[in-house]
């Protein structure tokens, strides 16, 4: 990779951003970007790929950021320990088709594939197909992918990759369960 000699003040592009790692903060960092973008009157679309992960706190806050932030949570039938993997795949497919259409509409300045890394890790969607869609995104649209175990290919393709590293977590050391404002 060529090393840039310095900042080019005119250079702009939509970034492919990946938040991964075993530490807390991947999703909240993505939501922080959404908040920041909305403040700049940028349009943000968030597709939440995991069932039950969509917490009241962020949902209600995002309602206040409408129309700049639009969220689609996956309602039902999506866990990776279900007996019916075909159903999981069908649900993941449905979610993916929605976010793909939104991304390609060119209407959004930022599209967040929330927890997509899990979907790819558990092979609910073909990795190459998903990466192809992200790669061919509208030039100026930022794409954010979150979740543990980001794939090597996605990391390779991305412009900005951050690994959250767990040093301490209140659940691990002290058995403290999820708390309002911190986890939901
Ligand atoms: P957050 O949504 O808080 O930013 P995250 O997106 O980085 O967290 P996920 O893997 O999506 O992490 O897991 C979400 C939930 O799991 C959060 O409630 C978070 O506090 C908890 N969690 C994250 N990392 C750990 C860990 N290392 N040990 C125990 N619980 C964790
Ligand atoms: Mg998360």
Describe the structure.
With 184 residues, the chain is an alpha/beta fold. It contains 7 helices and 6 strands, in the order βαβαβαβααβαβα. The protein has one domain: 3-Layer(aba) Sandwich (Rossmann fold). It is globular and about 50 Å long. The N and C termini lie far apart (40 Å). The structure holds adenosine-5'-triphosphate and magnesium ion.
Strand content: 15-25%
Per DSSP, the total helix count is 7
The CATH homologous superfamily name equals P-loop containing nucleotide triphosphate hydrolases
Tell me which ligands are bound: adenosine-5'-triphosphate, magnesium ion
Strand order of the largest sheet: 3-2-4-5-1-6
Summary of the model, kept short:
The protein has 184 residues and is of the alpha/beta class.
Keywords:
184 residues; alpha/beta; Rossmann fold; 6-stranded parallel beta sheet; 38% helix; binds adenosine-5'-triphosphate; binds magnesium ion
Provide the fold topology:
Elements: E1 16-21, H1 26-39, E2 44-48, H2 56-64, E3 69-73, H3 85-104, E4 110-114, H4 116-121, H5 127-135, E5 142-146, H6 152-157, E6 160-164, H7 170-174
Parallel strand pairs: 1-5, 1-6, 2-3, 2-4, 4-5
Adenosine-5'-triphosphate binds at residues 22-28, 148, 164, 166, 169, 171-172, 178, 183.
